[in-house]
Amino acid sequence: MSKNAREEAVLGAVRERREKVNAAIDEELPSKRPERLYEASRYLLKAGGKRLRPAVLLLTAEALGDVPPGSTDYREFPDLTGESIDVMSAAVSIEVIQSFTLIHDDIMDDDDLRRGVPAVHREYDTETAILAGDTLYSKAFEIMLRTGAPPERGMGAMQTLAETCTHICEGQALDVEFETRSDVVPEEYMEMVELKTAVLYAAAASIPAVLLGADDETVEALYNYGVKAGQAFQIHDDILDLTVPSEQLGKQRGSDLVENKKTVVTLHASGQGVDVEGLLDADDPEHVTDDEIEQAVSVLEDAGSIEYARGLADDLVAEAKAHLDVVPDNEAHRRLEQVADYLVERGY
Amino acid sequence: MSKNAREEAVLGAVRERREKVNAAIDEELPSKRPERLYEASRYLLKAGGKRLRPAVLLLTAEALGDVPPGSTDYREFPDLTGESIDVMSAAVSIEVIQSFTLIHDDIMDDDDLRRGVPAVHREYDTETAILAGDTLYSKAFEIMLRTGAPPERGMGAMQTLAETCTHICEGQALDVEFETRSDVVPEEYMEMVELKTAVLYAAAASIPAVLLGADDETVEALYNYGVKAGQAFQIHDDILDLTVPSEQLGKQRGSDLVENKKTVVTLHASGQGVDVEGLLDADDPEHVTDDEIEQAVSVLEDAGSIEYARGLADDLVAEAKAHLDVVPDNEAHRRLEQVADYLVERGY
């Protein structure tokens, strides 16, 4: 299948699920008193988002259940013994966690824009944004408790969710630590990316296996699919931050360079002798121009660093797809392969 | 029993459990990589705290199990059918949630001191404090998953924990909302206090009932014990904020007045015609002197507002104790009654 045809298939699959996911978000997280708190909590979820992680979760359920994609009610999804499970609430829970982390990350990074709209701490204020994130955090756990799965599996899903959240915090802490360290090695970066970003894809891919009653080997393989695909996603994100105009990104281009974030691109460039910290005018990194970003990116391109990162992301996608071997060969399985491809082919 | 004898009995009971709770906190939340994150997460827990909520949880388990206080290993506590439950991990989980809320509250209120040491966002920085709170949040859920209770009861405990956290956020949002509203009525204040403060006592008192396999009526009565005792605790806290010197409080005396927080005291005074917002020099509330606080408190005393709040707290304690009727009449039961008394008698 060509890249374009594949992208169309993936976007179609994501789009088909997005409307259902958005409706379910409204059901699981209704606006209520205190209104301002719930408005702020729902603000970013309402602002858009592809719903990639819920799509991965729902597709994984369909692949495991061996049902044609889109054929089966996600609220009454048959487990491997035919009992009914609400996998949609698990999908919403994962998206709610994603939204909580974005709200708190934007405070910590002092980012102004997200999904093309003001970050929550800009639209409201920092106090409200902290509290909105905290509210989504516990709501995600409440929502994950509503799958109707047998309690033992429900506990398994809660365990994965809680550990995932801890890992995300650890990854974010490492990301911040790396900003002030000059001796970060690629292995540390990959560990940071696994913790900060990839574990949420791993949760999305493995939790349906837990809920539907799959064996441990299947759960683990799907977890690893998510880890590898998620790492590839983050590396591609790092590339997009450098190469895509701000309007299209929905946030400032080159923000990672401005904030001195370590990425696979900058680590590779440093290894090639590029003075990465000197790429932007150190006196005034906040008011960097598009031209300065453009020039910095040229240097990284000349060092082969962007190409290197692309190759690494491609390798991770191949690894991710190999882990899907535990899943029956069906249409949803192929969609999950295409999702992994899409994660490193998407334009924004 | 005299007030002094009762206080001694309660403090003894709390103290006996505190060391075990502190050891368990170290076990459940060890220092690990990223070190700075876990240091910041443990900082406030290490700074002290009476461990009242864990004491309530452990005493409730002992009252329900009808065992002499302190006689039984909390890590292998017999449930109502004799199976072994780790109620200590539940106690740690509740204290970890308490610590997370204090860290984020201090950022939101921009408070400098907590437990006589700098608040986490002062000792570290705001970013680290947000992330430390987020880490404790998921850790509390991880720890609550370690009770070894049958999965159905474990799910019940997780449900209570998640809903409790949501309520705390809602209560905090109402508290902030009230700062800018002049039409807050006492019923709203009591609801806010239930959400912000009391539900964590309710979780502490009801979760052992869930874990040990008590019936719904018992769970609900213990929950209500916690709600009423927790509301009384908060009202007494509001009184202490006005009447106890800063050194003893571990934070600035009169901070609620400075921040224009609504309390039962100020709501009563407003009802008596006192211009509460005019009590402190509005131009410079940040640099208020001890004398100014002293004068403001005199006005509130003259209006009978502090006495009114004391009476309300006493009534709530009586209600709380009445809910304990579902629990066998034993030594731990009496300690739980004394704890409720202590919550409104403590000097700080």
TrEMBL record, chains A, B:
Presence of the UniProt keyword Hydrolase in the record: no
CDD domains xrefs: Trans_IPPS_HT
Presence of the UniProt keyword Metal-binding in the record: yes
Pfam families: polyprenyl_synt
Gene Ontology annotations of biological process type: isoprenoid biosynthetic process
GO terms of molecular function: metal ion binding; prenyltransferase activity
InterPro entries per UniProt: Isoprenoid_synthase_dom_sf, Polyprenyl_synt, Polyprenyl_synt_CS
Cofactor: Mg(2+)
Keywords annotated in UniProt: Magnesium, Metal-binding, Transferase
Family statement: Belongs to the FPP/GGPP synthase family.
PANTHER family (UniProt xref): GERANYLGERANYL PYROPHOSPHATE SYNTHASE (PTHR12001), SHORT CHAIN ISOPRENYL DIPHOSPHATE SYNTHASE (PTHR12001:SF85)
UniProt name for this protein: Polyprenyl synthetase family protein
